[in-house]
DNA sequence: TGGTCGGCGATTTTTACTTCA
DNA sequence: GGTGAAGTAAAAATCGCCGAC
């Protein structure tokens, strides 16, 4: 992992806020590059006259990835140079460096072939060990770090998609339950209406057919109102427990062992 | 117990594409 | 119809934190 530049947000921003809530300030322009590096960079990648877009289109396998971000460049500098040296710069150098900076900031866009292979590997394993990473990087002519980043982002996308799917599923569940609740409330009202009008018919006739079921193991009639009806002579009529399920309420998911 | 490494969430940056005047 | 600016979604990359070792 690269942990450099951890303080580049400045002191005034860092105080009093969790680090991950701090808004980052735009970075200052990247430090000047070593001439040898930058020259080879821009020319190697894009050629001296073509735009990045042209380069990308004309050469799908061009390894723009090599120096795709400022961060990589900084690291590259450490790897290659070891220590920073002051580079004398004149006006002629500046415009060239600005071009190079712009080129260096260019971000890699993976080719279809690269993406396809990465997808294949991801299907096999959503994470890679360092050796697999190196191998894949070599195979695709990318940096191991880029492979790592791609897998990280891919995992994040997968997770996001799964979250969306889960969310949709829960939404549908909620709709179904709301509808079911509405239906049961209506049924309850009807039952109450029946209860308080006319002398009560035999118990099982009070219940809508849908609520009456025969328990498959004991073959007794079960229904949403049976439990309450059993104590219909008590004081619980019309109370909150009227619909309280009993052990003989047939639940296909949790049929009681008491039958 | 401190250091390293890898994964993750949040965020930024860049690209490619679309829309609109 | 061609063109450039503005808007936007997607993807690559960065940053900081955390847990495992």
TrEMBL record:
Gene3D superfamilies: Homeodomain-like (1.10.10.60). CDD domains: homeodomain. One of its GO terms (molecular function) is DNA-binding transcription factor activity, RNA polymerase II-specific. It comes from the Eukaryota. Residues 35-44 have a biased composition (Low complexity). InterPro entries: HD (IPR001356), HD-ZIP_Homeobox_LZ_Class_II (IPR050762), Homeobox_CS (IPR017970), Homeodomain-like_sf (IPR009057), Leu_zip_homeo (IPR003106). Residues 103-162 bind DNA. Residues 1-65, 79-105 are annotated as: Disordered. Residues 87-97 have a biased composition (Basic and acidic residues). GO terms for cellular component: nucleus. It is found in: Nucleus. Belongs to the HD-ZIP homeobox family. Class II subfamily. PANTHER family: HOMEOBOX-LEUCINE ZIPPER PROTEIN HAT14, HOMEOBOX-LEUCINE ZIPPER PROTEIN HAT9. This is Homeobox domain-containing protein.
């Amino acid at each position: 992992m690269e942990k450099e530049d951890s303080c580049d947000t400045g002191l005034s921003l860092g105080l009093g806020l969790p680090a991950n809530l701090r808004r980052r300030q735009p970075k200052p322009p990247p430090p000047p590059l070593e001439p040898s590096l930058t020259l080879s960079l821009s020319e190697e990648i894009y050629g001296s006259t073509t735009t990045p877009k042209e380069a990308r289109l004309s050469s799908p396998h061009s390894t723009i990835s090599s120096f795709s971000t400022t961060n990589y460049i900084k690291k590259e500098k450490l790897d290659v140079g070891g220590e920073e040296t002051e580079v004398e710069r004149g006006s002629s150098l500046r415009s060239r460096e600005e071009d190079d900076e712009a080129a260096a900031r260019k971000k890699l866009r993976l080719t279809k072939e690269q993406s396809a292979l990465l997808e294949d590997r991801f299907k096999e394993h959503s994470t890679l060990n360092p050796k697999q990473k190196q191998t894949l990087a070599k195979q695709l002519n990318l940096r191991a770090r880029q492979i790592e980043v791609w897998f990280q982002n891919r995992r994040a996308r997968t997770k996001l998609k799964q979250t969306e799917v889960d969310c949709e599923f829960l939404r549908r569940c909620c709709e179904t339950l709301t509808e079911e609740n509405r239906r049961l409330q209506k049924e309850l009202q009807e039952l109450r209406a029946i209860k308080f009008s006319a002398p009560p018919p035999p118990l099982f006739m009070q219940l809508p057919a849908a609520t009456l079921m025969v328990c498959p193991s004991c073959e007794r009639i079960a229904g949403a109102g049976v439990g309450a009806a059993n104590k219909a002579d008590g004081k619980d009529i019309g109370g909150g427990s009227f619909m309280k399920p009993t052990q003989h309420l047939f639940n296909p998911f949790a049929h009681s062992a008491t039958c």
